[in-house]
Please model this.
Amino acid sequence: MTASTPALLVLVRHAESARNIAKKGSVYFADDAARQVVRGVPDHLIELTPDGRKQAAQTGQAIRSRFGAFDYVFTSGYARTEQTAAAILDAYPEVERSRMRVKPELFIRERDPGFAYDMTTAEAEAAFPWLSEYWQTFGGFMARPPGGESLADVTGRVHMFLNAIARDHAGQKIMVVTHGGTLRCFRFLLEGWSYSQAQSWPEGGAPANCGVTTYRAAGDRLELQDYNQVYWTVGSPADGI
Model:
């Protein structure tokens, strides 16, 4: 019987980024002072903090010990996911590392944050006074940031990615280094979540930086083995992108 899904899918949220620290888990920046370090840096160029690099290195040791080598490692192509993947793969000796192919994949990038990307809370409320009510009406899965994407939009491209790895990488071991919002879309699709489940992470359920989520093949589907395993001991888990 031919395999119809990867044998192993390991999802890793990127390590702590400079923007995680600047925003401190908030949707917008608290004030102008908070955003100065990353102001004007586009989302795809946001880099890891020194603690983030340590988180990724420690996570790499645990991933190699637990899973061994992978056939493919996919990143979103954003600096913080590429740097996380590189630090994880540094845990592997060269002979193992040389057999793993690393590929950026646009379909698994973070949601487009839209026009309010660099705004403070006060600026966003002044520019979009209707936004809070709109968000409450449509919820965190369906609502779109002004000029950006909803998580429902992101789910469409994650679905295409999952179809592609089922077709091209059946029976293989795959690691994906991606983003917190994108991880929610993976779970929506792989675990058959309802819209209500996908509206927000449950209390305490948001993925930590370098949190590791594992799915294994069960027949013709991928079954969740564990969620958000944390293997590092530096810094602190951070919400957001």
User: Anything to note?
Assistant: The mean pLDDT is 95. The radius of gyration is 18 Å.
